[in-house]
Design brief:
five-stranded mixed beta sheet, alpha+beta, 7% strand, 2 domains
Length: 409
């Protein structure tokens, strides 16, 4: 367990750009070998992982609006301040932050920074100042708020989700190790812009690794010869059932949640259209003289846009709930198949267990091979979908920019 954690953390360290950070006065530097998690929430919400060179190594959208905002943009290599400035600027250009007569309460940028080091303490102030200065330069009335970073329990859940560690492995980690593990997972999935695609990826990878172990186990038992054929056949049947459960879950995720042709993605497209109209109307109202005749009519139109958006949102969430119930059922089936395999392994004879122990290197090689090849295989299988998804997000961002410009005009 400790060896695996160390290997992951060393792999992450090797991803760190070897760039020396120039000190400015008494500016604190990040502790060596650590990663800092920064979130910028304007709804869009985005997470940045910062390395010990004070550079962004990954950017991850935490909601659909965040996916739209980061699509087609290059944040990696920026300082946290530069990334914040770009986030606020993009939010202004797309209408998520509203200019004109909008009050400060309507525009809030919420910042969180992990850690309690001097660097983290200074970084919060610097990023908050950057956000405030950028809004001022864009002539947007707003406010910046510091929010608490993740507590340890939430951090553990995120580490398990993004890096596929077990609960026991994560429990043995320090916060610093968990941030490093999260950074590794985020770098790995950098091309997966939406939550649905990342969930499909992590689910498929976890199953692939587990299946690789079970398949290699079956091959070792089969090679032991005739006396073990009954054990092999029973175990192989369970492995095949497990494979079928994996396939059913992966296909459901893709066909129902990820595919551009799915009802879920079509519903999401409608939600984005409604959001565009709502933001455009909000920005238009902000350009008008308050309490004027045109302002009153525009405000009524805004109210109708909000009502329409809420209806579309409700429909989208209802569909999501329905699909999630079906997904839970498939996951339970998968877990049952996996549990049955583990129960068979516990009943293996001493001879089989000794052979598996002797072939531990083969088992580890099978697992590592599955890990190493998985992303390339996933990317290849979904290349067209990934490209179409990014293009769709960029087009939505351009529509928002055009709507915001039209509102200003």
């Amino acid at each position: 367990m400790k060896t695996r954690i160390l290997a992951i953390l060393l792999a992450v360290t090797m991803l760190t750009p070897m760039v020396l950070m120039t000190s400015c006065g008494t500016k604190a530097e990040p502790p060596e070998g650590t990663y800092t998690r920064m979130t910028v929430d304007i709804n869009p919400s985005v997470e940045f992982m910062i390395d010990d060179q004070n550079k962004v190594v990954s950017v991850t959208a935490l909601n659909d609006d965040g996916s739209i905002l980061i699509a087609g943009e290059v944040f990696v290599g920026m300082t946290p301040e530069e990334a914040t400035e770009m986030m606020v600027t993009l939010a202004g250009e797309t209408g998520y932050l509203i200019g004109g007569n909008a009050e400060a309460d309507e525009n809030e940028v919420r910042i969180s920074i992990s850690g309690d080091s001097k660097y983290a303490e200074q970084l919060v102030k610097q990023v908050e100042k950057t956000a405030a200065d950028t809004m001022k330069a864009l002539d947007i009335e707003g406010k910046v708020a510091k929010v608490e970073a993740m507590h340890t329990e939430a951090l553990r859940a995120l580490a398990m989700e993004t890096a596929l560690f077990t609960e026991e492995e994560v429990a043995a980690m320090t916060d610093e190790q968990m941030y490093s593990a999260i950074a590794a997972g985020r770098v790995e999935t950098a091309l997966l812009l939406t939550e649905e695609m990342r969930e499909a990826y992590y689910s498929a990878k976890e199953s692939r690794i587990s299946f690789a172990h079970s398949e290699a186990t079956a091959e070792i038992i089969n090679a032991m010869g005739g006396a073990y054929q009954l054990v092999y056949l029973g175990y192989k049947t369970a492995v095949d059932a497990y494979s079928a459960a994996i396939t059913a879950l992966d296909e459901f995720r893709y066909e129902k949640l990820v595919s551009p042709e799915s009802e879920y993605q079509k519903s999401l497209a409608k939600l984005r259209e409604a959001k565009t109209e709502l933001l455009q109307q909000k920005n238009y109202v902000a350009t008008l003289e308050v309490d004027g005749e045109e302002y009153t009519a525009a405000t009524l139109t805004l109210q109708m846009s909000e009502e329409q958006y809420n209806k579309v949102l409700e429909s989208y969430e209802t569909l999501g709930t329905s699909l999630n119930e079906a997904l839970v059922s498939l996951i339970e089936r998968l877990r049952e198949s996996e549990a049955f395999l583990r129960s068979l392994e516990e009943k293996f004879s001493d001879n089989i267990k000794e052979e598996l122990q002797a072939k531990a290197v083969e088992l580890e090689d099978a697992i590592n091979s599955a890990k190493d090849s998985f992303f390339a295989e996933f990317e290849s299988a979904h290349k067209e979908d990934l490209e179409a998804m990014e293009q769709s997000l960029i087009e939505q961002k351009n529509r928002l920019k055009a709507a915001a410009t039209g509102a200003e005009g």
